[in-house]
Amino acid sequence: MAVTESAPAVAPAAQVRNTTGDAADKGGGYEAILRRQSQRESAARTYARSLPIVPVRARGLTIEGADGRRYLDCLSGAGTLALGHNHPVVLEAIRKVLDSGAPLHVLDLATPLKDAFTSELFATLPAELADNARIQFCGPAGTDAVEAALKLVRTATGRDGLLAFTGAYHGMTAGALSASGGATDVRVTRLPYPQQYRCPFGVGGDRGAELAARWTESLLDDPKSGVTTPAGMIVEAVQGEGGVIPAPDDWMRRMRRITADRSVPLVVDEVQTGVGRTGAFWAVQHSGVVPDVMVLSKAIGGSLPLAVIVYRSELDAWEPGAHAGTFRGNQLAMAAGTATLAYVRENKLAERAGILGARILGRLQGLAAAHPCVGDVRGRGLMIGVELVDPDAAGPDDPVPPAAPALALAVQQECLARGLIVELGGRHSAVVRLLPPLTLTDEQATAVLDRFADALAAAERAHTPTTGAPRTTPGPSH
């Protein structure tokens, strides 16, 4: 089955005719809608501040705003929209449920839709896990699934502590925040996450990953480290909000050995990396690691709220009702999710993401050679980050220039002015992140890269990079 979505024609902003419906006009226009949002919604809103648009229609990669402008969406609902906006197979699955008369709200009762979703999901999992797995529907968001995973391993082991990593992001509820970089919890031991560009040990590469692994082993094996055997370790195979940092495959395998040898459950957060995003159906498959618990959300619901954990049956120590949630039986999400999982699998979109992502990285690395403000280009599949820096501020003892968050913000705004939606992330909000749908065509990829290159050049000309303080926590997306 071939991918047939064609690249929609996207005119320059100044040439786009206002073709929106009546909804925005009845409310006084899109500017009035934005004004009312600012007046009514909390100060915690994030995306709305940097992306002041009012979407009214969308298809595939393209969003049309209430002002008549069209945008190429490389945010994709923070990675939720594996097939882009309103993909036909997703819409058809939803319509079938609505037309069938099936109940939409069933708590955790068994339904044909749930059975079909679970069967499709299990068919995509690492075989060693799927053959001996249990699933818990958590709903509705990834952060709820993280909470469930932490509760599960604490219940199963009778222990309380947790191993997590610097730069991590696992959600915004209390337990998930405690495991995220930037949060503080005495029950969480923070470990170094290996990275090439800003290695915490200053060496990078295989040596940096080896030192990070040794640090972990030392903390667990030294009786005077103050770290008792934890309930579990939670890790992202690619840190998303932390700046698009892929974990080395050998290091991931090392974490699996370290945890298995010490009977510590390994929890892998695949909320953003899953369903083909990184070039494999699940990011752990790059390293061949089989975790004890997988945390899944975002794309598994086909654009609708759905979150689950899948785990080894030996950990299933819960009593009935030990973990619940009113909306864990979202039938529309299960139908949309089944359609999405099947489409990605049947059309080999994970493999396609790996091939196209490598091409995009190559083009971006070419940009880096021509723009000193691009410190690093990295990613895996269609999960890509461009870190912007102040090249004139590197010190003699630190060849890596400081991050340039103000420049990154300027690039994001220049992208928006050219009809391209991108996200910022990383320790200092200085990483421009690209998360296009897996249905991205070659033509669309070229359009995205052309607009990004133009925006980068414009921002670089107009802006003097300045460093800024890092965010307290990464931006919310679970």
CATH level 3 topology of the largest domain: Aspartate Aminotransferase, domain 2
How would a textbook summarize the main sheet? Answer: 7 strands, mixed
Distinct helical segment count: 15
**Which regions contain 5 or more consecutive residues with pLDDT less than 50?**
1-21, 23-27, 465-476
CATH superfamily of the largest domain: Type I PLP-dependent aspartate aminotransferase-like (Major domain)
CATH architecture of the largest domain: 3-Layer(aba) Sandwich
**Tell me, what's the shape?**
globular
The CATH class assignment of the largest domain is Alpha Beta
Pathway: Amine and polyamine biosynthesis; ectoine biosynthesis; L-ectoine from L-aspartate 4-semialdehyde: step 1/3
Organism: Streptomyces gardneri
Protein name: Diaminobutyrate--2-oxoglutarate transaminase
Pfam family, one: Aminotran_3
What do these coordinates show?
This is Diaminobutyrate--2-oxoglutarate transaminase. GO terms for molecular function: diaminobutyrate-2-oxoglutarate transaminase activity; pyridoxal phosphate binding. The chain is of the alpha/beta class. The chain folds into two domains: 13-79 and 349-462, Aspartate Aminotransferase, domain 1, CATH 3.90.1150; 91-346, Type I PLP-dependent aspartate aminotransferase-like (Major domain) (Aspartate Aminotransferase, domain 2, 3-Layer(aba) Sandwich). The chain is 37% helix and 14% strand. The protein is built from 15 helices and 17 strands. It has helices at 23-26, 30-40, 47-50, 76-79, 88-100, 112-124, 127-130, 142-157, 174-178, 205-221, 249-261, 331-346, 349-370, 405-417, 442-462; strands at residues 55-59, 62-65, 70-73, 133-137, 162-165, 188-191, 232-235, 238-239, 245-246, 266-269, 293-296, 308-312, 374-380, 383-388, 420-421, 423-425, 431-434. The strands form four sheets. A seven-stranded mixed sheet has the order 4-12-11-10-7-5-6. A four-stranded mixed sheet has the order 1-2-3-15. β1 (55-59) and β2 (62-65) form a beta hairpin. The chain is globular and about 60 Å long. Mean pLDDT is 89; it is low at 1-21, 23-27 and 465-476.
